[in-house]
Amino acid sequence: MTDVVVIGAGVAGLAAAGALRRRGVSVRVIEASNRSGGRAWTNTPPVLGGVPFDHGAAWLHAAEANPLVPLAHAAAIPVLDADARRSRNLRLGGRAATADELAAYRAAYDALTAAAAARAMSDAPDTTLAAALAAPGAELWAPTVAAWEGAIIAAADADALSLADWHANALHGRNLSVPDGLGTLVRAVLEPAAGPVALATPARRIRWHEKAGVVVETPRGSLAARAAIVTVSTGVLAAGAIGFDPPLPAPIEEAIGALPMGLLSKIALRAAGADRLGLPESASVFGQVSGEARMVFHAWPFGRDHVIGFIGGRGAWALARAGAAAAEDFARAELAALLGHRAARAFAPGAVVTDWGTDPQFFGAYCYARPGWAAARRALAEPLGSGRLIFAGEACHSAFGGTVAGAFLSGVEAAGAIALS
Ligand SMILES: Cc1cc2nc3c(=O)[nH]c(=O)nc-3n(C[C@H](O)[C@H](O)[C@H](O)COP(=O)(O)OP(=O)(O)OC[C@H]3O[C@@H](n4cnc5c(N)ncnc54)[C@H](O)[C@@H]3O)c2cc1C
Question: To which H or E segment does residue 122 belong?
Answer without folding.
Answer: none
